[in-house]
Amino acid sequence: MVEGVAAAARKAGGGALPGQPVVGPAAWTPATLDPSEWAYQLSPTEVDEIVAATRHAVDTGKPIPELSKADFPLPTLGPHLERFAREACWGRGFVVLRGFPVDRLSQAEAATAWFGFGLHWGTPVSQNAKGHVLGHVKDLGLDPDDDDVRVYATHAAQPWHVDDTELVALLCLKTARSGGRSGWVSSASVYNRLLEARPDLAEELMKPFAFDRKNEEDPGDVPYWLLPVFSFYKGHFACFYNPRMMKEAQARRGRCGRAGNVAPALQAVSDIADQPDLHLEWQLEPGDVQLLYNWRLHMRTHYEDWPGFENRRHLLRLWLTADDAPPLDPAYYGAAAPGRPGLGIYRRGTVHSAPLDAE
Predict the structure, then answer these.
(1) How buried is 223 (Cβ within 10 angstroms: 0-12 exposed, 13-18 middle, 19+ buried)?
(2) Alpha-helical segments (H) within 63-186
(3) Which entry of 14, 231, 238, 297 is 20 to 30 Å from 141 by CA?
(4) How many structural domains does the chain have?
């Protein structure tokens, strides 16, 4: 994998300006990408190193949330992982690794391995009000139409969106019987096409919109965030887009953050992201790893599962604050607890936990 383009972008600093097309490695289309630059096959030596590091981490006796990078030593692979994270943050926004040794690990060992592996990319943050720093993307049989349900705990499609973190890392343990494809699109390229076709909507989406917090806030706190969909900060472009949270803020709280009908602007983002020449899709298989710089856009298609809870599609998920990433609009830190730097979902007194299965 070549890091040169991302390194050049990092060295040059930000040059993105509102009302002008975003240029650089983040503004990609599938036609401009070479799969050899974003897909990486782990070598037998690297796989053995992961297994050995897992044994070492288990032998420390520490609970998973208390593990440190030093507890998961990857002397050969570690520098590559750090490079992949820089490539994601400063380059195209994603990388895929294949061959993580899920077939050589129990589910509990895989949980330890995945958490330790992710520490080489950044610092894990809480993914929900329960303080989970190790997440499970698995159908719990919940109703996706319930406004308080997080869609990752269902088999429903997840439209184009971002999460509340800097890096999203997924490890596939089991696949569905059908469906469940992952998709990525450059939010910068979406912005560029919208700017060309509807500059009025592109400008509208740089103003604050309300995003529902899905009752994961502390009692008495404001139950929504006000954030711009498109942000330009210190010359860097970012995107915070989650149409479900935006529609819920309007339906449940009577807040959309803007006057008038905002539906055309929101729909335009999804419509452009859906254009076949703009996005990539990938079917994650067991042992596949997906690392995403969150301020791009990702989605998942609907899926049908196998019978039996233990056979269901199952991905381990980490939300991470990156060790080295472009500066971020302070508005996007709205979910952080008072006085706490970083992202994630926190209530006062949140304690990190790492369940070994979905709950």
Answers:
(1) middle
(2) 78-90, 107-118
(3) 297
(4) 1
Position of tokens 């895989």?
110
- Confirm if 82 and 89 have CB atoms less than 8 A apart: no
In terms of residue numbers, what domain contains 225?
4-333
Residues 42-62 have pLDDT tens digits of 999 999 999 999 999 999 999
142 Cβ contact list (under 8 Å, min separation 6):
149, 153, 154
Residue 27 to residues 11, 126, 239, 310, 357, Cα–Cα distance (Å): 17, 29, 12, 40, 37
Tell me how far CA of residue 221 lies from CA of 8, 212, 224, 337, 348, in angstroms: 42, 12, 9, 11, 11
358 within some domain: no
- How many CB atoms are located within 10 Å of the residue 34 CB? 9
* Distance separating alpha carbons of residues 102 and 217, to the nearest angstrom: 35
Tokens of 348: 């006062």
Residue 205 lies in a domain: yes
- Residue 139 burial (CB < 10 Å; 0-12/13-18/19+)? buried
Residue 261: partners with Cβ closer than 8 Å, 6 or more residues away: none
* Short-list 308, 358, 359, 311, CA closest to 176: 311
Helix or strand (DSSP H, E) at 319: strand 314-322
Q: What is the mean pLDDT of residues 113-123?
A: 98
29 has a pLDDT exceeding 80: yes
Cα(332)–Cα(165) distance, rounded to whole angstroms?
9
Quick one: CA torsion of 276, 278, 283, 284, rounded to 10 degrees? Answer: -170
């520098």: which residue's tokens? 79
Q: Please enumerate in sequence order all residues whose Cβ is within 8 A of that of 116, keeping only pairs 6 or more positions apart, or say none.
A: 53, 54, 57, 67, 69, 71, 72
Which of 120, 108, 1 has the alpha carbon at shortest distance from 49?
120
Establish if 191 belongs to a structural domain.
yes
113 CB-side CA count, 13 A: 26
Q: Which position has the higher pLDDT, 173 or 255?
A: 173
- Rounded Cα–Cα distance for residues 159 and 241 (Å): 10
- Global confidence as pTM: 0.93
**What CATH number is given to the structural domain containing 253?**
3.60.130.10
